Amino acid sequence: MAMLEYNEVTERKYIVYEGAPYEVLSSHVFRKQQRKPVNATKLKNLITGKVTEVSFHQSEKIDEAEINKKEIKYLYNNRGEWWFADPKDPAKRFPIKEELVGPGGKFLKANNLVDMLTFGEDEDVQILGLKLPIKVELKVTEAAPAVRGDTISGGSKQITLETGAVINAPLFIKEGDIVKINTDTGEYSERVN
Prior knowledge:
Elements: E1 3-5, E2 14-17, E3 20-30, E4 38-45, E5 51-57, E6 61-64, E7 67-78, E8 81-85, E9 93-97, H1 98-101, E10 113-119, E11 126-131, E12 135-143, E13 156-161, E14 166-170, E15 178-182, E16 187-191
């Protein structure tokens, strides 16, 4: 594992802190009056999801976490379990619990490829979760017709996507349209066709 200086702990890096893998959400290096510099960070525990604030001092070195990515194919979900397979060998199927898939899972279609994040070595591998594409294209299966003069609510309506997810979208979106969705925020991004 690589060792990071206190000021190299920056956003989107993965570190090992107190024996657990963390993702750095934010970092700010500053100096209080005559004292030595400090890196104030917000860290997200990749196992529990808990966010904590930690300050690293100039003399500290931090282990960089080795987070492995493996491409997997989404198959289906059933009773809180999401089933995936190795894209090269569909017979190698395995379930992942709903908590690890996260809220972006409602935008997954069958045969979508996603990255599985793991931490640890051979026998002690721990699945941390999935890294979905930032934007996905989905077909609108249900959209109420826009009513003339109905812009008092900000000009949006609820639509249902082919995966069953319900989101807010502009009034001009109709059934059959293909729309882009941001999987991080769960919001409408743009109309494709």
